[in-house]
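Comment thread on ticket #2218

A.B. wrote:
> Attaching the input chain for the structure job we discussed in standup.
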Amino acid sequence: MADMFSPGTTAAPALDRRPVIAWALWDWGSAAFNAVVTTFVFSTYLASQLFVDPRIVAAANGNDKDPALVRALADNATLVGVALMIAGIVVALVAPVLGQRSDGTGRRKLWLGINTGLVVLAMAAMVFVEGTPGFLVLGATLIAVGNVFFEFASVNYYAMLTQVSTRENIGRVSGFGWGMGYVGGIVLLLLLLVLFIQSFGDPDAGGFLAVTKEGGWNIRLAVLASALWFAAFAIPVLLRVPEIPARRRQVRVGFFRSYAVLWGTLRSLWRDSRQVLLFLVASAVFRDGLAGVFTFGAIIAGQVFGFSPTQVLYFAVAANVVAGVSTFVAGRFDDRFGPKRVIVISLIGLIVLGGAVLFIGTSQAAFWITGLGLCAFVGPVQSASRSFLARVAPEGREGEIFGLYATTGRAVSFLAPGLFALFVGITGDTRLGILGIVLILGAGLLLLLPVKAKPAVIG
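C.D. wrote:
> Ran it. Output below, let me know if you need it in another format.
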């Protein structure tokens, strides 16, 4: 590992392995929210029949295709979707200003700690979401609140990348952190599967701890354990990574006045560093496509290829393994050939393999191969995008730029879900929803091709 963290010829005293590992452990711990809450466990719990009127479930009599049951599940999913949409709007409006203000005060770690703590509290509160219809709104609200503060925490966390790396090793450090996130997801999902979720001979109890499934207790305790996991692994970055010094601005402004400063930043980017602004737009589009791969991949696996919920979770573990390994490797290619090449090649791979899903029939083996191939390219795109932006962000303004990164990503977060739903709605075939995701990835690639890596100059 020493070579990965080698700071090169421009090393600063703080640029050693300990801050890098401490920083990357936040990525490791954040899998508790990304993998458990938003993707594979809690969101699936909210989408289950536990939150449907028991009379509708009883009338369906085990028929998953019963129209009333299908409609009720769709209504529940819509409620969760609306909650997440509202969360996205809040992030889009507030994230860039928070990032801008943390740059000037020299309190990135403080705000990272506060926002991470609020995410942990939202996750811990999910233990009170009983598996009955009356608790659906609470569950949707908590997942939305968690998303808001997770995005706020990510703004400061991403900005700290330049505090633990140099221009020579920033790609490897970013890839290491993102890879740690995937590995953390693997370990945590396996632990939850064994301790709380997998049935070992008793269909009414979950996991090695034999936690009752009544009222969703096994899932609720799994999420509570995940909250403790995130809290524990968020501590090292707060202790080991040095804080940036406070920067004296010529004019200190209030919160709402900060939006005028933000508008000035956008105008300056357009005038002096247009490539940065163009990258923010391109990355917003292809990152939405990446989110679609994970969000709708599980749906396609279940509805088209007949994966059971347990099989989906096993696939999730394998997907994190493949994505993690590929991200570690891609970090070295990032430093050697540049992040843009890594992004372009990975997007091409995603487009080709996404299109291949249309032609592999219903073979689960074929989906395993194609799906894991897709995962091999997802991590490198995410890591290289973070590296690209950190390379071109002006020194001392990283929080502001990554706040814009969060905002632009949220601004188009409706594209992949919208096109997926459009293609499925028109054709009635869930498999064809992948066309919408492929189109989004292709559009992001076309927007990226003309972008040049030029450091930003913001007045």
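A.B. wrote:
> Thanks. Noting for the ticket: DSSP finds 16 helices and two strands in the chain.
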